[in-house]
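Notes to self after the call with IL:
- keep both proteins in one doc
- input above output, always
- annotate only the second one for now

Protein 1:
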Amino acid sequence: MIREITFQKGIAPQASGSVLVSFGKTQVLCAASIEEGVPRWMKEQGVTGGWLTAEYSMLPYSTSPRKSRDSTRGKIDGRSTEIQRLIGRSLRAGIDLELLGTRTLWVDCDVLQADGGTRTAAITGASVAIALACNRLIEEGKLTKSPVLRQIAAVSVGVVDSRVLLDLDYLEDRDAEVDLNLVMTGDLEFIELQASGEESVFGNEQLVEMLDYGRKGIRSLIAKQSEVLGI
């Protein structure tokens, strides 16, 4: 079963759209900010429309023992870099960047408490934050139509003690024989699928079962997103 999922809107008032998303004990603050203008590389390459970029970080007190800040180490760790790239490309699949106009949509995902599934919670929460930010553009008269093409959600699936489990917490993820992260649209179309055997292997039958669990989880998450957005 999927863990208890909650969304708290407006948690960061200075952002254009924000939500505190909880997957069980995992809590991620997702904020979407809109900046007029686009990165220089887009202008240099003649790329039209807008851009969406994501940043991800785990706050020092989100884990035990305490995690050092990236600024203290002087660099972003490889895991955070990989996750924020995943978040960015996943969310861009849900946005009409041409319709966004010459604007940059910044998505910040800060993990307040980590108990497994921080990347999937970040993607799911950020999708809501983006929808709220785009609604604000319409309210301000800067757009007549939302550039949001589709809702995006993500969930983890794994095999623990030869059993398929959905939305793994930290202990389950630590002991998982197979780990899979699934990013999908509200229409259950794939955006990204990351699967790996953790010192193990898995066959087609097990993969089909994991995907079936994942789809059920995505349906539940999309329904909760729709409820909080009133759509």
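Protein 2 (the one to annotate):
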Amino acid sequence: MPGLRWDALLGGVETEGSLAFWMYRLDSWGWLLFETANMAALATLMGAGAALLMAFPAARNLGAGRVVNPLARRLLEAMRTVPEIVYALIFVWAFGVGALAGILAIAVHTAGACGKLFAESIENTGLGAWDGVRSAGGSWAQACRFAVLPQVAPSLLSYALLRFEINLRSASVIGFVGAGGIGEELYKVIAFNYYEEISAILLLIILAVFAIDLLSERLRHRVIGAMR
């Protein structure tokens, strides 16, 4: 815990016991946290996009085929089984230290995790519109696009936004292996036993997750309201 004192709480950066003294590197940490949030957002976008493409063949009720369906499901299982930090180690070795390795690591795991949730949402959807499109001569892909996707879009958006919150925390952790973001800074202060700095960084991560949760909720309600 930081050594804060009531009599010095609002003092300057040079005053021990003040908030400014505790958060003396707020500008640097804030930029690293912004970088981490960008990593999480880009990885979520990439992973959710890949999950959306694989969810339709992975859904059992759409009849993708005896070969395609189990193949898609096994691929999603493999992608989400391996932890992000293991993917990060692999990509750091392949592409070097930096944000690219972290983005790819989170994106691959996100594709596997969201793919399962997306496929289950599709399986729980009524197929009346699907049958209508198919009976009118529409292809399998057209039925997925125009009959199923509009029904499940709110659920898919909700899952993707939830995954974005999870990915922010994941992006903070995989920085420990050199994958960029505020995780690298957190690893350094832990290694040097700068305990007050650890608590400051953790507080900033928690506040960032709170902010993203509130923004995600508003965005989800707005999009769902527009679809209705």
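Annotation: The chain has a mean pLDDT of 83. Residues 27-227 form a domain with the MetI-like fold fold (CATH 1.10.3720.10).
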